[in-house]
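Consider the following input, taken from an annotated entry for RNA methyltransferase (Parasutterella secunda).
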Amino acid sequence: MRYQTIQSDANAKFKRWKKLADNTRFIKKEGATLAEGAHLVLTLSERKIKPAALIFRASGVSDEVGDVVRRWSDEGVDCYVLDNKLYDQISPVEHGAGVIAEVRIKEEPLPQNADCDVLYLDGVQDPGNVGTLIRTAVAAGVTVIAASRDSASLWSPKALRAGMGAHFAARLYENVDVTDLAGAFDATRLAADARGGSDLYETPNWEAHHTVWMMGAEGPGLSEAALSVADKRLYIPIIKDCESLNVGAAAAVCLFEQRRRRLQAKTLK
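Applying the prediction step yields:
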């Protein structure tokens, strides 16, 4: 395997990767991001997504990606070895797995009247929560995720790391205003709102049609703009001694209740 060693932070390629690691606007401009870790590399291979480049930590990388790395190298993927300190500057986690794939991403325009289930992120600003939400949605069978302009980037390296490969099984739309949801998706808009509405478990038939589940920011919850376009407001009945749920946990409860109801409906037919 041929590779280039980079030991200086003045290197142009390193400077570009540093921007991809730190600047979400640059991710959008370049149409590329960084996916760190053996699991993400193996997921890319399984989905036949060839990276634009592979970046390795000088101190070594897990053997489990060896065959994939050698194949991609033979297919012409550029490979680079970074000094440990440089690698750590672009890794989304401390003491990462030692391999990062630069991945091309393509922004897709919103559909019109798409008949599908959707998870909408309204101002969710923590990239770890964003990745967890994408992973949870895909696990529950919801593979379309849209996010407001003030949400964290769906494609940031930290969100990718938390998503554990789910990004590559989903369709992702960023900078989507809540007022665009009605025209884009033929689905019932459901607001997950701890402040009021109807009981998630006792309210009938909200799952009968495709849904857009709207999840709000950590702390303030859904914006007034999101609540104004909701067809229904639903709350999770939690024990009074607990003030609230993390947005990732709330999404898991709602999306898997939706899946449970639909599976049950199938068995009753």
